[in-house]
Amino acid sequence: MKTVKILETVKIINDTVKKFDGIRCFLSTGDLDLTEIKSLEDVTYLGKPSRANQNVKKDDIILARMQGTVKVKIIDSDEENIIVSTGFMVLRCNKDIDNRFIFHYLKSNLFQSKKDKLCSGATQKAINNNKFAEIQIPLPNLPTQQKIAAILDKADELRQYNKQLITKYDALTQSLFLEMFGDPVRNEKGFPLKQLKEFGSSRLGKMLDGKKIIGNNLKPYLRNSNVQWFRFQLDDLLQMDFDEKDKIEFSLLFGDILMCEGGEIGRCAIWKDETADCYFQKAIHRIRLNDKYVLPEYFVYMFKKISDNGGLNEFKSAATISHLTGEKLKKMRLPIPPIKLQNQFAERVQMIETQKQQAQEALAKSENLFQGLLQRAFKGELN
């Protein structure tokens, strides 16, 4: 299999948005989840963000430029009128190039590691057009490209099936929550409203200090991006110096809730000793509950529903960075149902989580299979 410069297979498209009437849909980098669009924002020409400035056509491939970000998508026919962020690179395949072959290559660890090494920038590192042009790609003939793409598509189907199964288990738990407790924003079941100080405590983590990223007490710590809804993303933990006093102040116990102060504010998960000797940064609230009154399972699903139903909108701002400060969190009045009902919910959640864990293990196997096939494909071992 020959190797060619990547711009022999694709063109970088720079079709900027011209003045338009009415409303168009805008896709930001944050609203693309790996390869799937989570949501689109309606924008007018005068009201659109400055980054909403690229047109796309059917079969174009969009690639997130940012370092450490695997976000790639082929534009479908019903998406070709959307506007995409300048945080994406828009690529159009040349003649005799199969766009699904390129799509899978751009998702591969092989490409992503090359891309990350070429990223630059003072704050958010990203790949520019000149650096992208330096990348070389293994390229078989068109029939072999199509055969490889078909094999990878089939392997990806299994991976996507397991992802969808996990999503369904999450939806089942949220449906169960609504059935048992109703909407916590409207508190339609009339549960008593209590402030956090009445059933628990919270504190923010340690302020990130660039001078303390080296030292004798380097320990992994959680950032905002490591905390997802109901789970933790732990494959990119950073380290910071934590002395003995810090270890007491910023330690984590089984059952603690970690909540994002900024970004997607309120996003939270239950710490279950996923990794040893781990701490947390100032961008995160550590919440400890008195389990005689409130259980972690109820608390995190309550906050998900509050977030989904607009109950955190008062803490968001279009003009400045949004924060759910410690003071604001402590003053929130939250519906607290009887502990017996919370226990019933937690027991049912545990049964669902057992099934979900099996699906997650299957997903891990299908991910390994898929990445293995990607590596073989682009080393010329799959043709």
From TrEMBL:
Q: Which PANTHER family does the annotation name? A: TYPE I RESTRICTION ENZYME MJAVIII SPECIFICITY SUBUNIT, TYPE-1 RESTRICTION ENZYME ECOKI SPECIFICITY PROTEIN
- The EC designation for this entry is 3.1.21.-
Organism phylogeny: Bacteria, Pseudomonadati, Bacteroidota, Flavobacteriia, Flavobacteriales
Keywords per UniProt: Coiled coil, DNA-binding, Endonuclease, Hydrolase, Nuclease, Restriction system
The record ties this protein, via InterPro entries, to: Restrct_endonuc_typeI_TRD, Restrct_endonuc_typeI_TRD_sf, Type-I_RS_S_subunit
Indicate the secretion signal residues. Answer: none
- Annotated protein name in UniProt: Restriction endonuclease subunit S
Q: Tell me which family the UniProt entry assigns to this protein.
A: Belongs to the type-I restriction system S methylase family.
The protein's matches in Pfam families, at most eight in alphabetical order, are given as:
Methylase_S
Organism of provenance: Flavobacterium algoritolerans
Q: Which domain of life is it from?
A: Bacteria
Q: Which GO terms describe its molecular function?
A: endonuclease activity; hydrolase activity
The Type I restriction modification DNA specificity domain, residue ranges: 2-166, 193-354
Q: Which residues form a coiled coil?
A: 349-376
